[in-house]
Amino acid sequence: MKINILFVLTLIVGTFFISGCQKLDRLDDLDASGIDAEYAIPLFSTEFAMGEVLDNFDENSSVFFDENGQVILRYFGDFTSSGSEDIFAVLDTINGIPIPLADTVSALPFVAPNGVTLDYAILKTGGFRYGFTSDHEEDVTVTVSIPSFTKNGEIFTHSLNTSSYTGSLPVAGALLTPLDLSGYTLSVEEDSIYVEYYAYRETSGFRDTLKGFFVIFNDITASFIQGYLGNEVFEFERDTIEIDFFENWTEGTLRFEDPTINFFVRNSFGFPVRSSINVLDVISVDDEIFPLSSPDIDAGIDFAYPQANEIGEVKETNFTFNNENSNLVDLLEAVPQAVDYDIDGLTNPDGNTAIRGFMTDSSFLSVQVEVVLPVFGAVSNYNVFDTIKVERFDFDVDFEEYGEIDYAEFKLFSENNIPLNIDLQLFFADENERIIDSLFTEITPVVTAATVDADGNTLEQTTEEAFARVTEDRFENIKEARNLFLRARFSTPEAGMRSVRITADQNVKIGMGLKVGVTR
To answer: How far apart are CA 110 and CA 383, in angstroms?
Structure first.
């Protein structure tokens, strides 16, 4: 449920006009006012605290309270993350391609993309196949070794025997069933993978060569790699955080003193990553776009990362844009409806190849953005407007027994401990939402702000009374209304120039009575 604290107050006031807390159902309960043919009817009297009201909203609300009871509005963006797939793709350069061997000892070039220099990789999966032709007229034993692949200190080695030449050129090798390389460590020296083979003729014992020798690596994936892992970009999805505080705004200003936009970053990659903020905009209710400016946006935010002895650990970086390092306070005066952001992460941003980083197949980088608005600020001429549906007005009193009604006068009173002025106008409308009357002739003060100290904390409550007289005909129309158009205007003390704090324990008591004049 979307929450607007100022609008919550408006709805509470509006609710008082729909159902009373102390409704009368007997004429004998009417108290004479002391004036002939006038009667005073108490319609309701109710009291609420901000904490009680806001606690009634559902658990997905954006309203919270800090340890001092101050109301905090918090809005979270979606949780976005990026994994290791792109960087692990460097091993795809050797996957599935037949590689011919020029000699019995060959250095297969391994050039990783995007400036990556691989020191070594521990393979998660991998297959190896090889083939050749032999025209020797005696059996041959072939042994293939890959010094670049080791496991438990042993070099990968495979041997097979071939039959003597019989008039055709047999092709031999592990072609149909790849040899398993999982668990092996691939070491890349001088950007090469070294492969050797030996062919011994069984009868003569001579070492010889074979024709058309080739190797194929397939499904090579890694669980861990180390090296200089290049300048990659971790891309996160663009997101928008909706701010519903101003949902019913029509005019006026509100200034938050201590707003923040917080970045929560979790990183398990073992190398430097710096933010690249492509978009960080405040969007106003008029759909204007106001970019957030800050030296930290231009320079980027460096994310903490685990060191070589912290493999598997997750490092957290929490960064805040506030009124000291950005223009956030000024932007929020534009009456925001959303914060739009698009963030990337740049690996090894300084291009320092001496930093030998690492990553695992479960490494990740995640970012979440939060907008925090402590309800401490100043309000000036802040207007909201909404429609309230009602079934009927029923005061449970038969006035006709007392004679013809000459007039009806509504009286509102308030005892307020909340540092907000509330001016109100209520329009009565028929079922077609056509206005048929209004409570006051103009928007009228109903609640007076509690007095505050220099820090915006409430000192003492205030009281206020407001009156609205209507004729008999107007009163009959009002009782038949089916819709209410409610307009409220809020301000903090000193004409909206004083910043105040809204807390959970602040309360207001509001009551309403009706005085009628009748002709006997």
So the answer is: 67
Q: End-to-end alpha-carbon separation of the chain, Å?
A: 51
CB 349 within 8 A of CB 232: no
Strands 192-201 and 105-109: antiparallel
In single-letter form, the type of residue at position 1 comes to M
CA distance 221 to 124: 5
CA distance 179 to 182: 9
Read off the DSSP letter of residue 309.
G
**Which residues pair with residue 411 across a beta bridge?**
467, 513
Are 97 and 179 contacting, i.e. CB atoms less than 8 angstroms apart?
Answer: no
For the chain, residues classed under CATH 2.60.40 are: 86-228
CA 189 – CA 107 distance, rounded (Å) = 10
Residues 6+ apart with CB under 8 A from 251: 381, 382, 383
| Distance, CA of 348 to CA of 112 (rounded, Å) | 16
Residue 88: phi, psi to the nearest 5? -65, -20
Do the strands 458-460 and 444-447 form a parallel or antiparallel pair, or are they unpaired? unpaired
Strands 154-162 and 140-151: antiparallel
Q: Which burial class, exposed, middle or buried, applies to 85 when counting CB atoms under 10 A from its CB (0-12, 13-18, 19+)?
A: exposed
Q: Which fold has domain 86-228?
A: Immunoglobulin-like (2.60.40)
In the DSSP assignment, the letter for residue 137 is S
> Rounded distance, CA 131 to CA 175, Å?
7
Backbone angles phi, psi at 73, to 5 degrees: -95, 125
The helix or strand, by DSSP H or E, that contains position 127, with its residue range, turns out to be strand 117-133
Write b or e for each residue in 472-492: b if 16 or more Cβ atoms lie within 10 A of its Cβ, otherwise e.
bebbeebeebbbbbbbbbbbb
In this structure, which amino acid lies at residue 110? F
Of 77, 7, 453, 86, whose CA–CA distance to 265 is shortest?
A: 77
Question: What are the pLDDT tens digits along the chain (520 aa)?
Answer: 344 444 444 545 554 444 433 333 333 333 433 334 566 667 667 777 776 656 554 444 577 777 777 778 888 888 788 777 766 677 888 888 888 988 899 998 888 877 888 899 999 999 999 888 777 777 888 899 999 999 999 999 998 887 665 545 555 556 667 899 999 999 988 888 999 998 888 777 788 888 888 899 999 999 999 999 888 888 888 999 988 776 666 666 667 778 999 999 999 999 999 999 999 999 988 889 999 999 999 999 999 999 999 999 999 999 999 999 999 988 877 778 899 999 999 999 999 999 999 999 899 999 999 999 887 767 777 666 655 555 545 444 555 555 566 778 888 888 999 888 888 887 888 888 888 888 888 888 888 999 999 888 899 999 988 888 888 778 777 777 777 777 778 788 887 778 888 888 888 887 777 787 766 5
